[in-house]
Amino acid sequence: MINRHEKLFIFVYNGFVMDIQAKRIELAKWILDVGEDLLNKVNAIKENSSSEIIVYSVSGEPLTKEVYVKKIKEAEARIESGQFTSHDDLLKEMQDW
Predict the structure, then answer these.
(1) Stretch (H or E) spanning 30
(2) Quick one: which of 5, 14, 54, 83 could link to 78 by a disulfide (CB 3.0–4.6 Å)?
């Protein structure tokens, strides 16, 4: 009996049980043979899936992958330019709270 905590993910497809890697291969082969209209629909699904919320900020703001990566790059740029508070400076600042 496969429980939900096992690392092997299965899908039932046309009466067969497939692991996720086999499912990917099956779908890749299928995509190679579909027409342009259906391929455009699959591509639209792919594009829309990249705008899914993947994380929430500390304040509860939902972030998509694109926004999350952008915020990380902005933070890295601030750090590289010296716009940050060091641990020691923060400890000194906290003494005045």
Answers:
(1) helix 20-33
(2) 83
